[in-house]
Amino acid sequence: MDLAVLWFWIVAFLFVGYFVLDGFDFGVGMTMPFLAKDDTDRRVMINTIGPVWDLNETWVIVAGAALFAAFPEWYATLFSGFYLALLLILLALIARGVSFEYRHQRPESQWKAWFDRMIIVGSAVPALLWGVAFANIVQGVPLDADHNYTGTLFDLLNPYALLGGATTLLLFFTHGAVFIALKTEGELRARAKRLATRAGVITIVVAAAFLLWTGVAQGSAWFWGLAAVAAVALIGGVLANTRGKEGLAFGLMALTIAAAVVGLFAALFPEVMPASNDPANSLTIANASSTPYTLTFMSWTALIFLPLVLAYQAWTYWIFRKRVTRQTIEAAAH
C-alpha cells in the first residue's frame, strides 16, 4: 500500500479512537443536568471518567500531530479555514478540563455550580462542532488555487453540516448515558438506562438522516457498507441497553461511532479536502501528503510506539473497571 494512503487510514484510526473515547466523556458531561439529582450524583458521574478523560483527549493531539506531519497541506488548509470553529472547540476543552480539576477545591455550592455549567457547555460545544467540521470536510468547502478556504464561519453552518453536528451531539450524548449505566449502580444507573433509551431513539432518526444524505451525495459502496454496520450497531446498542446489557450496549455504541467515522473517511477518499467551487482546487491524498522519507520515518515510529500506547490505555481502563457508587463517594468525603 502507498504510504500516503496508509497514513490517511492511520489518521482515520486516530479520529476513531478520539471520538469513541472522548465521545463518552462528552456524553457524561452533557447528561449531568438530566441525571444528577444532587452533588453526590454529580461527583459520581465525574468520577466515572475522572481517571481517563485526559488520557482520552490525547488522541486528538496525536491525530492533529499525525495530520501535520503526514498531510501538511491538509493541516494548513483545515486549521486556517476552520480556525474560529477549532478555536471554540479548544476553548471548550480547556474550560471542561479546568472544571474537572477546580470544582472540588471549594465547598460552596455556587462555586461548584459554575464549574458544572462549564463542564456541560465544554462537553456540548465540541460534540456539536466536531460533527459540523467533519461534515464540511466531506461535503467540500470553497478553496482557491492555493488551497486556501475562501468562505466564512457562517458558510460552515449550512444545513448538512448542522445535521452532522446534531448527529455527533446525539451519538455522544447516548454513548455517555450508556457509559453512566455501565459504571454506576442504583437509581443513577436506572435513570441513565432510561435516558439512553429515549435519547437513542432520537439518535437513530437523526443519524439515519445524516448517513442517508451523505450516501446520496458522496457515498461509495464502502460507505454504504459501513453505514449499514453503524445503523445496525446503533439499533442493537439501544435494544441492548433497554434489556440491561450495558456492556454490550457500550460496545455497540463504540462500533457505531467507529463505523460512522470510517464511513466518512471512505466517502472522502481519495480526497482529503474537496473544493466545492472547483474540483481542480481540491486537496487529495497525493497532493497533500509529505515526502516518502517523512512518511517512512513516521511509519516506523508508529509501528514501535502505537502498540505501547494502546497497551497502556487498555491497562488503565482495566485498572479502573469497577463501578462508581454513591457509597464510595460519600465515604471519601469523610
Automatic annotation (TrEMBL):
<feature type="transmembrane region" description="Helical">
    <location>
        <begin position="160"/>
        <end position="183"/>
    </location>
</feature>
<keyword id="KW-0813">Transport</keyword>
<dbReference type="GO" id="GO:0016682">
    <property type="term" value="F:oxidoreductase activity, acting on diphenols and related substances as donors, oxygen as acceptor"/>
</dbReference>
<feature type="transmembrane region" description="Helical">
    <location>
        <begin position="247"/>
        <end position="269"/>
    </location>
</feature>
<feature type="transmembrane region" description="Helical">
    <location>
        <begin position="74"/>
        <end position="98"/>
    </location>
</feature>
<dbReference type="GO" id="GO:0009055">
    <property type="term" value="F:electron transfer activity"/>
</dbReference>
<dbReference type="GO" id="GO:0005886">
    <property type="term" value="C:plasma membrane"/>
</dbReference>
<dbReference type="GO" id="GO:0046872">
    <property type="term" value="F:metal ion binding"/>
</dbReference>
<keyword id="KW-0479">Metal-binding</keyword>
<comment type="similarity">
    <text>Belongs to the cytochrome ubiquinol oxidase subunit 2 family.</text>
</comment>
<feature type="transmembrane region" description="Helical">
    <location>
        <begin position="221"/>
        <end position="240"/>
    </location>
</feature>
<feature type="transmembrane region" description="Helical">
    <location>
        <begin position="6"/>
        <end position="24"/>
    </location>
</feature>
<protein>
    <submittedName>
        <fullName>Cytochrome c oxidase assembly protein</fullName>
    </submittedName>
</protein>
<keyword id="KW-1133">Transmembrane helix</keyword>
<keyword id="KW-0349">Heme</keyword>
<feature type="transmembrane region" description="Helical">
    <location>
        <begin position="119"/>
        <end position="140"/>
    </location>
</feature>
<feature type="transmembrane region" description="Helical">
    <location>
        <begin position="297"/>
        <end position="320"/>
    </location>
</feature>
<keyword id="KW-1003">Cell membrane</keyword>
<keyword id="KW-0249">Electron transport</keyword>
<keyword id="KW-0812">Transmembrane</keyword>
<feature type="transmembrane region" description="Helical">
    <location>
        <begin position="44"/>
        <end position="68"/>
    </location>
</feature>
<feature type="transmembrane region" description="Helical">
    <location>
        <begin position="195"/>
        <end position="215"/>
    </location>
</feature>
<keyword id="KW-0408">Iron</keyword>
<keyword id="KW-0472">Membrane</keyword>
<dbReference type="Pfam" id="PF02322">
    <property type="entry name" value="Cyt_bd_oxida_II"/>
</dbReference>
<dbReference type="InterPro" id="IPR003317">
    <property type="entry name" value="Cyt-d_oxidase_su2"/>
</dbReference>
<dbReference type="GO" id="GO:0019646">
    <property type="term" value="P:aerobic electron transport chain"/>
</dbReference>
<dbReference type="GO" id="GO:0070069">
    <property type="term" value="C:cytochrome complex"/>
</dbReference>
